Input
Amino acid sequence: MGLISHRVERNEIKPGDHIYTWRAVFTYSHHGIFVGGNKVVHFTRNGTADSSNEATGDSDLLDGSSSSCPTFPDCGYRQPNSGVVLSCLDCFLKYGSLYLFEYGVTPSVFLAKVRGGTCTVAQSDPPETVIHRAMYLLQNGFGNYDVFENNCEDFALYCRTGLLIIEKLGVGRSGQASSVLGAPLAALISSPLKLLVPNPVGVATVTAGMYCMSRYATDIGVRTDVIKVAVEDLAINLGWGDISEEAVTQQGTSNELIVL
Output
């Protein structure tokens, strides 16, 4: 367990684990659910989403539309108009290191982490439930990708906890998104303290404290605006009916492509 994240070896992960890998020298991370058989289910942009997310620079947003993997013929499998993708572990990592997202951490451990999107105080559901959710969403979709409200970390967090935010406005479940928004907000709020605390170290300490508390307040395990939603009811709760119905029509012929 490190101050930034929890790096692990491949033989240490188990089916149902929430894994991630850092991209662009720790600029951002990409998350998914390890389902066994060297396969990962993860969430990306489906290529038909609106252009508001184009500027993120996240190359994973368009991954999985087709497969050039020589090892697994079903690597890159997805339903039409869905951003949920089945990939092999090698293609998911893209030569990056493997990290394990931690669940049920104490508040002190959570606050000690330098970066968001590495752990949560929320408890995880059993592995079989996690895998069921991931495979169900592979067939039925997870809605439209949104950097701040519905991203790859949000997908993995839902698969592990089944928790859904009631209020659709604002930041989603993602700790990574909370970090992006929390840092400038903490700096802005602490700016007037420069007049009261002339010591730069003191101002920096207060700013860091505000940043950590803003991350903690938006953690899925702390928020009060969350409910447990069965994966079968997810489309109804979020208005994804059209996507789900189209996916169901394809499901009968597509299931045979997935071999775990």
Observations:
- The mean pLDDT is 77.
- The two ends are 29 Å apart (CA to CA).
